[in-house]
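Sharing in case it's useful to others searching the archive later.

Someone asked me privately for the predicted structure of Ni2+-binding GTPase, so I'm posting the question and my answer publicly. Question first, with the sequence:
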Amino acid sequence: MMDKAEMWEQRIQELAAAGALSAEARALLHEMLEELKQVARQNMNLRKAVLKASGKEARMSSKLKDALME
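And my answer, the predicted structure tokens:
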């Protein structure tokens, strides 16, 4: 996601340099891009937390699992 955000940021800079964006539009796009980056970081942190939590849950031993399956 960060690669895509960097690509968008570069595109915004190109448009701003070409004069295709007003100051208000540039500020809005910058604000939206920063929010997107923050949400992407939060998403990655949540994914890591879920994976870490799922790895800690109690697991049955293979003998117990085999016994229950019979």
